[in-house]
Design brief:
single chain; about 350 residues; mainly alpha; 17 helices; globular
């Protein structure tokens, strides 16, 4: 127990940085009196330029030998999505009032915030807790997260969209091949030996462009959290119906913050540790297992004009609750035998 609590302060500082950046976005959106098109432009800049460049740099910097170790993140994405979908049916049966609510619980339980939150924690924690860098680093975990996102994104925009809206429309190409996904795919292409030579040859101008893009991509992580704050501030919740909506939010919180982390901790002792998974691999699977629902679910509901208030309420409540439970789960994870070199 004492060993676990020695990480309390650095974990708290990690959470403090995350809350600070999210709060900046929330305050600017709610009270800054900035033009609405500023936040739209900022979000567009992040999604279409800063984040894709960041992901491209992260992926392309990875040694191609890591590909052989990373197949599990495609399996982990599929496994966690369908585990969440399947187990959510048990949570939805007694509490959901109709079929639409049951689909919503399934969507929130199966599709997590696979990119923004995990990437932010991976980048921030080594700064507040340098000992983690020796065990996890930032580049390899971010690479694993990118592969998880690459696998989840098509399912989110097809199955996730159907569960939220009840409409099995064909997703648009720009949704399936979003700029962040394109950044990941381009990064994977540059892992090929011949392509890497082009990027890393200091005698070529491409190398210096690549270095400039690396510096530019560094702004993505703080902007991710600021924009997340603006998205949370923009959620419209009807205060008069919050009690009814809590019946929807409670099973979602139970799935995302109790059942799914529980599945991870059980799998750690039964599968991951016996199989020799690295601390970085376990760290990423842990982050994905307990992160809140995907914010894109709110975008889908808004575009379709269906379940907008319900989706907004659940996302708002789960993100607030996530910030409360995150330090506890991080402490539990760091105390696992074998994660930080312990037996």
């Amino acid at each position: 127990m004492h060993g676990m609590f020695k990480y309390y302060v650095p974990v708290f500082y990690t959470l403090l940085q995350i809350i600070t950046l999210i709060s900046i976005g929330w305050i600017l959106k709610r009270y800054g009196k900035w033009p609405e098109n500023f936040f739209t432009t900022l979000s567009t800049f992040l999604i279409r330029l800063a984040l894709p460049i960041y992901l491209f740099i992260i992926v392309s910097k990875t040694d191609y030998t890591e590909l052989g170790k990373s197949w599990m993140f495609f399996a982990a994405a599929i496994g966690m999505i369908f585990t969440g979908l399947g187990l959510s049916r048990l949570a939805a049966m007694p509490l959901a009032s109709d079929r639409s609510d049951k689909r919503l619980i399934s969507a929130f339980s199966g599709f997590n915030n696979a990119g923004y939150i995990p990437l932010s924690i991976v980048e921030i924690m080594p700064l507040t807790m340098p000992v983690l860098y020796a065990y996890f680093g930032t580049r390899i975990p971010s690479f694993y997260i990118s592969l998880y996102v690459l696998c989840q994104s098509p399912l989110l925009w097809t199955l996730g969209n159907y569960l939220v809206t009840g409409r099995g429309r064909r997703p648009k190409l720009q949704e399936m091949l979003s700029p962040p996904v394109v950044g990941i795919v381009l990064g994977l292409l540059f892992l090929l030996p011949g392509m890497r030579t082009i990027l890393l040859d200091e005698r070529l101008p491409v190398y210096h462009v690549y270095i400039a893009l690396s510096r530019f991509g560094n702004i993505a992580i703080p902007l991710i959290l600021v924009c997340l704050g603006t998205m949370i501030a923009d959620l419209k919740v009807d205060r008069g119906t919050w009690k009814g909506f809590m019946k929807l939010a409670l099973p979602v919180m139970g799935m995302r913050f109790l059942v799914m982390p529980g599945v991870f901790f059980l799998s750690y002792f039964l599968i991951f540790r016996p199989a020799g998974f690295s601390p970085a691999q376990c760290f990423v699977i842990f982050l994905e297992s307990g992160s809140p629902p995907a914010t894109n679910l709110s975008l889908m509901a808004s575009r379709a004009g269906i379940n907008e208030n319900k989706v907004a309420f659940v996302i708002l409540v789960t993100y607030i609750f996530y910030l409360l439970v995150l330090p506890v789960y991080l402490l539990l994870f760091l105390s696992l035998p074998g994660i930080l070199g312990g037996s």
